Amino acid sequence: MPWGILEDKHMSHVPGTIILADQSDVPEEYRNINRDLLKHGTGKHSHIILAPQPSDSPNDPLNWPTWRKDLILVIVGLSAGVVGAYGPMISPGFVEIAAALNISINTLSQATAWVILLIGLSLFIFNPLAKKVGRRPVYVISSIIMLSGSIWGSLAKDYSSFLGSRVWSGLGMAPYEVLVQCTIADIYYVHQRATRIAAWNMFLLCGISGGALIAGYIIEDQGWQWTFIWCAIIFGILLPLVVLFVPETAYRRQGYEQQLAARGATTTQEAKTEASDKKDASSEQESARVEAVETGVTTERKETYLQSLRLWGGIYTDTPLWKIFLRPFVIFFYPAVLWAFLLYGVTLTWIVVFSVVNAVIFTAPPYNFSVSETGLISLSPFILTFIGEVVSGPLNDWVCLYLSKKNRGIYEPEFRLPPIIISFLVGIAGFFGFGATIHFQTHWSGPVLCFGLANMSLALSNASVFGYVIDSHKELSEEAFVAINARNLLTFGLTYFVNDWLAKDGVLAVFNVLGSIFIAVNVLTIPLWIYGKRIRSYIARNKALYKFMHED
Predict the structure, then answer these.
(1) DSSP 40
(2) Which of 79, 112, 289, 348 has the most CB atoms less than 10 A away?
(3) Distance (Å, rounded) from C-alpha 47 to C-alpha 31?
(4) Region at 544 (left for phi over 0; alpha for psi -120 to 50; beta for the rest)
(5) Which H or E element spans position 19?
(6) DSSP reduced 3-state for 352
(7) Omega cis (within 30) before 137
(8) Which pLDDT belongs to residue 273?
(9) Angle between helix 66-86 and 135-155 (nearest 10)
(10) Is the four-CA dihedral 268, 273, 279, 285 of positive or negative sign?
């Protein structure tokens, strides 16, 4: 294996390794099925073999019209965007809100820390529930919590009530950090997902970066309570939309070979000879296929709209709830997931630190920003994160194809890792630069630019981090995302005391430490590059681990 990646000596085909030189358009999981029996896309995608293969049921979410799927995505995406804004939206008004509640700024920042802690903990509650009883009840409950939490926050008169509203809202924020990805996988085919995931990322981008930008003006012109009132208004609109137009997207679908067996169709390789003899009778095959659907064993009647409104539709997995609950804890220690947790978690946590300290730094001399001007600082990360998101995906795909070509057409998930070098350098400039420019009191454009570069670093690394985890552990990506998002526990720990640390040691010392830790976790990419393939092989060969981590 070139470039330092160690070859595995135990498996001829390691999970995640793909031979791109094989130009067959048949997805790997359907290679043993007669090609003529596989369903294709429609219109300009009629040449694409659908993956996953849908059932014949009109209630299968994969068979829903595209407009219905996109409507679901817009509603849950908008909800995720508001949830993204909910955490950092009060950051421009930290000084004003602390004075109104008669508390210190550090105490107010601890309220944000408790929100983050609740998000991290409740992920481990809502994910098993969503997998067991479906996505819809979790979405509805989450939206109700966010609506009630926003109303509560707007009415809070003292810190105890304010803190209670934030903690309660943190419980409802968690599902939108993970479940939207699961919903996209539920309703879209593989060839449709990249665009939808990009759209979801844009919702989050606008929420996280734009929330503080807008909130600065709201706090200055209407008062800090109105940030919660506007959230309550938006969730008051989104909750009915979730109830009325976001049906259950989880679906118990038989394996495609089982579906064909129920129709009496031949699925083995031997059927290819028979299929080739009948190539001229394609119209007869199509009519027979339709007849099989109409007379098949498992025909379902299409649900009415009123039936789709039920809150709970049954059980969607036979795996015990305790096992679903434990899987993220187990996969957390998979080296690829642990690396992703550290790299993504540290970078995002350090970025959250900016939102906690910006109001303290920029409203004081020498900058003396107003609340709205402090909110405008978020324009820098908004623009640079957008550029990073646009560039990172195509760049990552180009690097993977280039390295695969140099590797005789063989793709390894480790080929996702080299672009980390770019995000590493951008992050160094962002974290170390912010501390230095504040310490030496440069023009405000210096620290504002560095703030944006730190955010851009995260955007650039996301394609590598999540791409590597998905390619290495495709079937366990949902559990992996829950484990990675446990980074909220790390974020809680730092935001709880960062303002005290800042006051004691100064901005330069704090961001030098953060920058050094950022360097350390990025360096862990090197051993993953070298030993990653052998690690994937070891995990795949562990039968006890495989049995526990996969569906019963």
Answers:
(1) B
(2) 79
(3) 16
(4) alpha
(5) strand 18-19
(6) helix
(7) no
(8) 47
(9) 30
(10) negative
Closest CA to 425 of 393, 448, 457: 457
Closest CA to 302 of 259, 344, 247: 247
Token pair, residue 423, equals 């995000």
Which string of b and e fits 203-220 if b means at least 16 CB within 10 Å? bbbbbbbbbbbbbbbbbb
Residues 265 and 37 sit within 8 Å (Cβ to Cβ) = yes
Phi first, then psi, for residue 223 (nearest 5°) are 105, 155
Residue 263, H or E segment: helix 256-263
238-259 pLDDT, tens digit each: 999 999 999 999 998 876 666 6
Residue 325, CB half-sphere, CA atoms under 13 Å: how many?
8
Give the number of other Cβ atoms within 10 Å of residue 466's Cβ.
19
Q: Which residues, in sequence order, are bridge partners of residue 18?
A: 411
Alpha carbon 438 to its chain centroid, in Å, reads 33
- Which of 112, 86, 108 shows the shortest CA–CA distance to 97? 108
**Residue 98, token pair as written in the block:** 């602390």
Where do the H-state alpha helices sit in 265-370? 271-277, 282-295, 305-308, 321-331, 335-362
> What is the rounded (10 degree) CA torsion for 32, 34, 36, 42?
-20
Q: Partners of 411 in the beta sheet?
A: 18
Q: Rounded distance, CA 477 to CA 375, Å?
A: 35
- Match 């560039």 to its residue by tokens: 391
Q: Give me the amino acid identity at 271.
A: A
> Which residues contact residue 134 at a Cβ distance below 8 angstroms, ignoring those fewer than 6 apart?
248, 249, 250, 312, 313, 314, 316
- Measured between alpha carbons, how far is 317 from 138 in angstroms, rounded to an integer? 16
The stretches in the chain having pLDDT less than 70 are 1-2, 20-31, 194, 255-299, 552
Taking only the tens place, the pLDDT of each residue in 31-61 is 677 777 788 888 877 777 787 888 888 999 9
Which tokens is 154 given?
């707007």
Is the Cβ–Cβ distance between 210 and 455 less than 8 Å?
no
Cα-trace Rg, the chain = 25
Counting every residue, how long is the chain? 552
Residue 526 token pair: 């090197």
Residue with tokens 């919660």, as numbered in its chain: 228
Beta strand pairing status for 18-19 and 410-411? antiparallel
The DSSP secondary-structure symbol of 415 reads G
